[in-house]
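During the second half of the funding period, the structural biology subgroup turned its attention to how the target accommodates small molecules. The most pressing case was PLZ, which had performed well in the primary screen but for which no bound structure existed. We therefore specified the complex as follows and requested a full 3D prediction, including the ligand pose.
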Amino acid sequence: MKQERRLVTELPGPASRALAARRKAAVSGAVSVGNEVYIERGEGAILVDADGNQHIDFGAGIAVASVGHAAPAVVAAVAEQAARFEHTCFMVTPYDGYVEVCEQLNRLTPGDHAKRTALFNSGAEAVENAVKVARAYTGRKAVVAFDHAYHGRTNMTMALTAKVQPYKDGFGPFAPEVYRVPMAYPYRWPTGPERCAEEAFAEFASRVHVQVGEQHVAAVIVEPIQGEGGFIVPAPGFLKMVADWCTEHGVVFIADEVQTGFCRTGDWFASSHEGVVPDVVTTAKALGGGMPLAAVTGRAEIMDAPVVGGLGGTYGGNPVSCAAALAAISTMESEDLAGRALRVGEQVTARLATLAQVYPQIGEVRGRGAMLAMELVVPDGSKRPDAALAKAVVAGCARRGVVMLSCGTYGNVIRMLPPLVIEASLVEDAMDVLGEALAEALG
Ligand code: PLZ
């Protein structure tokens, strides 16, 4: 398949519109759909819909398809494993793929201390289990999470997630013993970005001391770059201060690398950019190369703390998912996808910077590697979020055959998460489309 955008009908086309009608009749209305084109196949950074239109994928299924859609090594590994066996349940009769994924994660995650890993199905499930492990290890209950955090949709992870709409509305009561503290969000820090890290850390330490008590805190959980919350890169130094505080107080520092992990930010893990070695790391998304797989990796003594049998599940570390993960990891290594993420990032950043010179609505361009975003605001100096503009731009991109995602606590951030194997010509084309959609939305 040629890696190019190609429109043969209006979008969505007739076949997608027919499927949309069936969706409305069959699928819960609580499941929302951003860009209602029904996908028939994908390759690299291209998605082909039911009408034969080729879209450029700048979302990668929310940071999952880092090695590209239908990556040959992943397809072969999945087919080979499925033909041997699809499932036994690792807790019943184990298999080597599970062990090898754990070995790889112990090798690749930051730090050279002794590590252990357990496998799960989704990011939320990994976060749930990271909290379980931290509580078992410390014998404490409280968990500290940040403003703008996103950690999932299960009960514990809803409690950890900051934003009520749409994630928590009507779904309480939430898990207790979760405490929220401010994030070092440079663009919106009241006194400006320069003092953001120090002041945010002081606020964190003081609130935990006064409202929780350090001795009651089992874990602090943080995304090293906040994803759903708006691609917020914490002010430099902030993560390290929080991690050091955790060490000082015997608190487990959990880095939620579900969205940032596996080369996305130009390194295997985003914690590394800040010189932070987490006690526990949660991963999912790109780990499985498109198959559902998640993991908790941490210091051996922490991961071994729960009772024997305390962690598990029927499907966690499914053999087909493990085979896909091993193929994805070896592709990331052999094709230097961390290096490619940096090159994609440079290309996208340059184009966004040019757009930002033209449009004062682009309040900030930020991110790392191929995890980049622009925050859209009302251009009157107030930094008032402009969610309507973000929505219009994403819709404009969709109509032109580029899958683009928004995010952010205020819904005013457009994020770029292409497969890391994307070709430079596709990035150029998608950025041209983004420019057209901006121009159109701003009349
Ligand atoms: N932790 C940091 O980004 C998932 C969610 C999309 P699951 N992010 C996409 C949506 O609206 O549901 C995510 C994440 C971070 C945890 C999760 C949860 O991962 O695999 O979706 O459970």
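Two results from this model are relevant to the next phase. The chain has a mean pLDDT of 98. Residues 337-358 form the longest helix (22 residues).
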